[in-house]
Amino acid sequence: MRTEKSEPKYIAIEGIIGAGKTTLAKMLAEKINAEILLDDAMNNPFLVDFYKNQKRYAFSAQLFFLLTRYQQQQSLLVRDLFAQKIVADYSFARDRIFASVNLSEREMILYDKILQLLHANIPRPDLTIYLQASIPVLKERIRRRNFGFERGIDDDYLQRLNDAYNYFFFHYEDSPLLVVKTDDIDFVENAADFDNLADIIMKPISGKKYYVPAGSAS
Catalytic pick from 39, 40, 80, 89? Predict the structure, then answer.
């Protein structure tokens, strides 16, 4: 178990589509010599169909995500989390956030029954990082990475997802939480931005902490 003054061993990075989760996870894992754990979202066979017809394919896509992430999280239980560092570009908690936006009321009832059976066996991160960004910034990042199936994402869906994430992490208590406002930093192109963020991440955090780099409030 992590003590109050120790560095986090298991770090989960969260944020909605285009927030920069995977990029930051890879950079941070390299910097601190940690193993990287990546969400296998691109191999979801229902994902492309979901973005074409969300209502029809939402439950199939969500259930595939849930079970795949559960299996991946189970692999952490057989690793020595005390001896190595792990950086993940998702947390298991994210699955229900998407479900709450994408599923109907009846589908959510079934989803929650399945989730309750799985959740007790999920390891909790020592630190969760939530990358926040405004809708215009997210749209630009999505445009730049140019994944074909994401081109049809509209502003309303992004806003609903962003609101759901903000609500969830406002009430989040499963682990220490670092909320990072990313609109005015570029940790990919600006080494100073990344180094400053990495320093914040590796300092002991208890409860909830907000990191708003200079200029973010302007």
Answer: 89
